[in-house]
Amino acid sequence: MTLRDMRDSRGDSIRLLAHRADVPPQSITRWESGDRDPHRMRLDTACRLATALGLSLDDFWANL
Questions:
Q1: pTM above 0.90?
Q2: Least buried of 17, 48, 55, 59, by fewest C-beta within 10 Å?
Q3: Residue 6 burial by CB count (10 A; 0-12/13-18/19+): exposed, middle or buried?
């Protein structure tokens, strides 16, 4: 599963997820496109994304 899959499963747009997680939309776009490796994101960013997606941090990392 990818970040895009997790986002799409909730029906969230990039902008909505970015707003909920307090992350620039460009960062989400880069992780989803492969321009940036999502496994190298900062822990605090991963925590915010996991929360915004309704996942535990463990589930977020396992699905990434």
A1: yes
A2: 59
A3: buried
CATH topology of domain 3-63: 434 Repressor (Amino-terminal Domain) (1.10.260)
∠7-44-6 over CA atoms, to 5°?
A: 10
Question: Using one digit for the tens of pLDDT, what is the confidence trace for 8-36?
Answer: 999 999 999 999 999 999 999 999 999 99
* Cα dihedral value 35, 40, 42, 43, nearest 10: 130
* CA–CA distance, 46 with 61 (Å, rounded to integer): 8
Q: What is the 3-state secondary structure (H, E, C) of 29-51?
A: HHHHHCCCCHHHCCHHHHHHHHH
